[in-house]
Amino acid sequence: MEGNQSNVAAASPNGVSSVPAGQELAMQTLSYSSQPPSPNTPSTPHQQSRNSIRLLSGILAVNILLLGSALVCGAAFSKVKVLSDEEIHIYLTILLILTTAWMIFYMVHTASRTQAVLYKDSHAGPIWLRGGLVLFGVASLIMDVFKTGYSTGKLNCESPVKVTFPLVQLVFVVVQTYFLWVHSKDCVQKQSNITGCGLMLTLATNLMLWMSAVTDESLHQTREEASKPNGSFDHLRDGSMFFKAGRSGCECTHGACEIFEKGFYYLYPFNIEYSLFASAMTYVMWKNIGREIDDCSPHKISFRTKGVVFGVIVGLLVVIAGLGVFVVYEVEVTGDASTERVLIMYYTFCIVGLSLMSLASLAGSVIYRFDKRTVVSTKNPTRSLDVALLLGAALGQFLISYFSIVAIVAEKATRTVSMLNLTCSCLIILQLCLQNLFIIEGLHKQPYHAEPPVVSVVFINEGTSRSNPYSPSLKNDNDEPSPVENSLERSSHSHDFSSTTHSSSSRMSWKRRALKEISGFLLLCNVIFWIIPAFGARPQFENGLEEWVYGFSMWVAIVNIGLPFGIFYRMHSVASLFEVYLTS
Amino acid sequence: MEGNQSNVAAASPNGVSSVPAGQELAMQTLSYSSQPPSPNTPSTPHQQSRNSIRLLSGILAVNILLLGSALVCGAAFSKVKVLSDEEIHIYLTILLILTTAWMIFYMVHTASRTQAVLYKDSHAGPIWLRGGLVLFGVASLIMDVFKTGYSTGKLNCESPVKVTFPLVQLVFVVVQTYFLWVHSKDCVQKQSNITGCGLMLTLATNLMLWMSAVTDESLHQTREEASKPNGSFDHLRDGSMFFKAGRSGCECTHGACEIFEKGFYYLYPFNIEYSLFASAMTYVMWKNIGREIDDCSPHKISFRTKGVVFGVIVGLLVVIAGLGVFVVYEVEVTGDASTERVLIMYYTFCIVGLSLMSLASLAGSVIYRFDKRTVVSTKNPTRSLDVALLLGAALGQFLISYFSIVAIVAEKATRTVSMLNLTCSCLIILQLCLQNLFIIEGLHKQPYHAEPPVVSVVFINEGTSRSNPYSPSLKNDNDEPSPVENSLERSSHSHDFSSTTHSSSSRMSWKRRALKEISGFLLLCNVIFWIIPAFGARPQFENGLEEWVYGFSMWVAIVNIGLPFGIFYRMHSVASLFEVYLTS
């Protein structure tokens, strides 16, 4: 849905842009570029201040993060008990209080002045990101309540910081979710110095929360594994870098402690996801500081499923099969005897699903090769960011897959489960690469509706760029080229364009339909591949081989870092595929 | 020296640019932007292919790197001997052979066709980077010879891959150094698909070499530490993640083995630095694929030291003091009794030097506040990359400093050495932040020589933008604004400009001199802070506190990752400060 309006700039036919169109493009690129010397305003001081804000706030964030990393590493990896969780919790509490105070200040300040935010970026903070934020925010709130309950029970023997921290985090999550819901589209112009530092503080706080949650979760899992009565990894236990000297012997004063503990460890992944979502949104807000854009609400493209049957049906079949596998997995995986059977079922489902998805993505990319639609060439920071997030989030899955492949190949494992795991890991890499290529190509294509055959008539009859509905809306009319020059330039291309449109109109329909089928199918498949890990399936730990090769603590760290990014990737690709579906 | 010519675009007086100047700027921004839809050529296919090259080659590099990381981690961290060095060496050898083959193919192909490379980026591959590459390349060659000698002696009991690898690396270093020396400025247009993948392969290979060298070096140091007869970290030994079961009992067949081993471990840091340099240069080449730029050789700004006395003298004093400290450090640090005395001397020198540097940078930034020179606002990818490399490389020092600070504060250490170390670490962070601000502000300022008082006369008398020596050189003259409009716009600003020039001409001289003094002083100081770590001083390990807090293996990893970036940072900042010196 996002990104359609601003991308209509390059709608000039056949990719050959005339000189005046080039000038228009130039002006629009400037208004989008990160350093916009707009022609009528004194650009240099504005841009200078924008650069220095970026630099200062960036340095601030780096310092917060590195100090935090040293604290987390010191507490988690150190054998000597010099640093404890307490220092980290104090540090995080201070960060949370500062960030919450700044967000409240920002909201009050923005509400009190009518002219505080002049521009809004309609592509920032799309609904799936905000919806996900609220969803994971609610889970984080419950986690904080559980944590507070658990820590209250241990108040007699543990530091009061452990009770304060979840309470402060609770307030922070509420304030931040509201803040990002309301303000994620802001392009701040006033007081941008404070705002830049505030946003970087928020970003650093979220990344610190992410880092500490990943470490906590990994520590907890390693402890659980080590405390198993007949765990198969006893030999690894004393060497593990995460392993601490076990529980402290601090007893809980109320009975609900165990429930609270189980509850909040179950909710940890949602909290990790929440931090990632908030980081992404804060980063986009920070990038938008000082940006001056014409806010046009995106084109309303009607969502129709008419005619798209095959892709949706196959996709729904995959979803239903996946849900079945997920339920069986969750029910049976605890039993020792049935684990192998369940894993074989799980991997088989993955292999079938991923193969279909890879083939679909490949077919989509092939169709794009024959697709004559122009590529949107205007610079759009939100779109570039979208692509970067998609590629970056895929790294998480890549990481896990490559470590699995190396472990299985090195071990020369020949069990059925291992071979299936190997095939599955290879397919994940292949599928992610192909799907990324398909999505990125799709996002950069001109929407189909922008090329009706009447365009060539409009081009010839109307001289000025204003009356051409496919030219970008410009803020200044000063440098409009002469109508004569314009129509001359355009008429020279109009023949090519109309011929292309007419000759391809008959084939266009099957191409469009195929693209819609493919994106619909991929969308549904990504939903099920999101649901399975998001709601707790962790075949990476049931398999046992990677744990043995890398050591439990290291494998836990890899999975806990990689998997949340993988979940983020699936959600993001669902949103992107929806956009591809609409524009096809 | 670099970056002067292209930055003259925003020389419009007082930062208020007229509309025609805005148009020129727009065109220039486009020619510099990463997605240039240049007005007279069919832009879309060109840009589309450029984007897809980036995407494909980026995915290739990510896959090579992740597979390599899994191999390195598996071999280094795993307790179980499933993966060994052999697999990594085979993988690296394959990568080296492929990369060497591609580089030879590229050079032959470029030499055989006259039109193979049409554009050159004069800012890419500056002399300090190429010089550093050759310097570290020579050290790497010697290291490879030593390694081959060492491995030949152990051929009876170790894999032949260990002899093949250094020999292949030797050929690779020779070919790559020549390749980057000759071709680092190329903006490839033809066969850019293969070139993109080839360059990403080269980048990935260099990063893999860096990763494997850092791991090797860390493993070696941990082994050395563990094998010390009365090492003070015995209690850490068995838990260390790098620690392997000691030497394999494989005896060397010739007598020079020990010399070879000592030699190549001494040369490791140079090889690590070589990989970083090559990576930076390859990355710039990759970014330049498909870029079409007017190649203008940079302005010859004469290098004069006349009048700059104070900064240079103080700088030289710091250099001489530093060399003295370095020699004493290297001679005395082996003795156990004198270590503390030497460390106190070393830290005192650092504190004095860094304080002076921080004050100088601060003074420079304050002078910039009063400096009315316009900021260069055109988009220049090489300049942005320069700044990114400067900020990124500083992270290495930040990392080490923050880990030191946390260790000392957590341990509540009160020894003189610890307090000095704490002060020194804090000062490093402060100094790097201030120096980065100073350098980046300096790099973005218009060179002083670009604003002679005659400019206003030129502006009024000559109408067209071609004859204005401060307007950017454009490739197309089609959209030149009308002379009348131009002179009107310009004359309205000429008064402001000439008045500024005249009123500030008397004060300009002390500002310029102060900036030259400061950049000269900082340059010399950075040279000595480069020499000390580059030639082997490692006070981070003599101190002992951080090792105790984080564990030896972890601290070794942090220092081995952070320090090469720190050394790269100092070299890069020397080059940047030289540029600031010239343009002030």
TrEMBL record, chains A, B:
<feature type="transmembrane region" description="Helical">
    <location>
        <begin position="548"/>
        <end position="569"/>
    </location>
</feature>
<feature type="transmembrane region" description="Helical">
    <location>
        <begin position="416"/>
        <end position="439"/>
    </location>
</feature>
<dbReference type="Pfam" id="PF03189">
    <property type="entry name" value="Otopetrin"/>
</dbReference>
<feature type="transmembrane region" description="Helical">
    <location>
        <begin position="518"/>
        <end position="536"/>
    </location>
</feature>
<feature type="transmembrane region" description="Helical">
    <location>
        <begin position="265"/>
        <end position="286"/>
    </location>
</feature>
<dbReference type="InterPro" id="IPR004878">
    <property type="entry name" value="Otopetrin"/>
</dbReference>
<feature type="transmembrane region" description="Helical">
    <location>
        <begin position="55"/>
        <end position="77"/>
    </location>
</feature>
<feature type="transmembrane region" description="Helical">
    <location>
        <begin position="344"/>
        <end position="368"/>
    </location>
</feature>
<feature type="transmembrane region" description="Helical">
    <location>
        <begin position="388"/>
        <end position="410"/>
    </location>
</feature>
<keyword id="KW-0406">Ion transport</keyword>
<keyword id="KW-0472">Membrane</keyword>
<comment type="similarity">
    <text>Belongs to the otopetrin family.</text>
</comment>
<feature type="region of interest" description="Disordered">
    <location>
        <begin position="468"/>
        <end position="504"/>
    </location>
</feature>
<feature type="transmembrane region" description="Helical">
    <location>
        <begin position="127"/>
        <end position="143"/>
    </location>
</feature>
<keyword id="KW-1003">Cell membrane</keyword>
<feature type="transmembrane region" description="Helical">
    <location>
        <begin position="89"/>
        <end position="107"/>
    </location>
</feature>
<keyword id="KW-0812">Transmembrane</keyword>
<keyword id="KW-1133">Transmembrane helix</keyword>
<keyword id="KW-0407">Ion channel</keyword>
<feature type="compositionally biased region" description="Basic and acidic residues">
    <location>
        <begin position="487"/>
        <end position="496"/>
    </location>
</feature>
<protein>
    <submittedName>
        <fullName>Proton channel OTOP2-like</fullName>
    </submittedName>
</protein>
<keyword id="KW-0813">Transport</keyword>
<keyword id="KW-0375">Hydrogen ion transport</keyword>
<feature type="transmembrane region" description="Helical">
    <location>
        <begin position="194"/>
        <end position="213"/>
    </location>
</feature>
<feature type="transmembrane region" description="Helical">
    <location>
        <begin position="163"/>
        <end position="182"/>
    </location>
</feature>
<feature type="transmembrane region" description="Helical">
    <location>
        <begin position="307"/>
        <end position="329"/>
    </location>
</feature>
